[in-house]
Amino acid sequence: MPSISDCKCVLVIGSTAGIGRSLALAILDLPSQPTVIVCGRRKERLDELVASHNATGRLKSVTLDVLSERNALKSSIEDIINAYPDLDAILFSSGIQRAFDFTKPETVDLESLECELATNYTSIVRMITFFLPHLIKLGEQGRPTFLYTVSSGLSIIPAAGIAGYCATKSAIHSLSISLAVQLKEKNVHVVEIIPPLVESELHVFEGTTQRLSNFWLSLEEYTKVTMEGLVRGDPYVPAGMVVEQHKKFEEGKLEAAMKMYGQIKAMTGK
């Protein structure tokens, strides 16, 4: 099975902090020595990351706002592809989290909710669509290429207080399965990374960090476990408590989707 160890150039979108940053540095340390492009909207953080971890010269940076207007985003992605024609893997780690109380609907900030939806889902669908022609072309040339999505254990069992966030991660989860099925014959491998509660600055509930730290997986341990799955070439990579949740509620779903897709193609000829 092809895996992240086969990649020559990996773009990590949303790598200025948390899981994205940690995975980017772990990928940089792979024995295969890929080029790693860290990507986000906070240029000062990207500059700091490159300055402190670029002894090999293989760590690059690109500033990108995933909420850019559609044509501007497409143009930015075309610029990245032109600058890095060996790009064969994209990891989508950008995301935000908001809390909404639907028992008090007058307090629900729809602008904030829609921003969360755009950041966590719509922008990722757009970027995948814009990157795919390049990845498919490389795949047809015999090079395995990769889309790494980041969902969440909350796509399996939601936390009601952050309903919007959970819904966006459920959408990424479903999308990942569908893309894995559709793109299999194109040599584009879709891998879903499914984190549990991980040490992060993402969490929205004030004053809960100390209590959450009793339950979350440390960023160091999470990165270690996830990299092991990526190197093995697993089609999905849960960690921590999500391993059991995934086994209980999701096992066999990818295979079932593959079977259904084949049956529909056989019936329709499409």
Summarize this entry quickly:
The protein has 270 residues and is α/β, with parallel strands linked by helices. It contains 9 helices and 7 strands; from the N terminus they run E-H-E-H-E-H-E-H-E-H-E-H-H-E-H-H.
Provide key terms for this protein:
13% strand, single chain, alpha/beta, 270 residues, seven-stranded parallel sheet
Query: What is the gyration radius calculated from CA atoms?
Result: 18 Å
CATH class label? Alpha Beta
Contiguous helical run count:
9
Main beta sheet: 7 strands, parallel
pLDDT average, as an integer?
Answer: 94
Annotation, overall tally of beta strands: 7
Low-pLDDT residue spans: none
Name the CATH superfamily classification. NAD(P)-binding Rossmann-like Domain
> Structural class of the secondary elements?
alpha/beta
Q: What's the order of the H and E elements?
A: EHEHEHEHEHEHHEHH
Q: Write out the strand line-up for the largest beta sheet, numbering strands in chain order.
A: 3-2-1-4-5-6-7
Give the CATH architecture.
3-Layer(aba) Sandwich
| Intertermini distance | 27 Å
Could you describe the 3D structure shown?
The structure is a single chain. This protein has helices at residues 18-28, 43-53, 70-83, 110-140, 163-183, 209-212, 219-232, 242-249, 253-268, and strands spanning 9-13, 35-40, 59-63, 89-92, 145-150, 188-194, 236-238. The chain is α/β, with parallel strands linked by helices. It has one domain: NAD(P)-binding Rossmann-like Domain (Rossmann fold, 3-Layer(aba) Sandwich), CATH 3.40.50. Strand 1 (9-13), helix 1 (18-28) and strand 2 (35-40) form a beta-alpha-beta unit. The radius of gyration is 18 Å and the shape is globular.
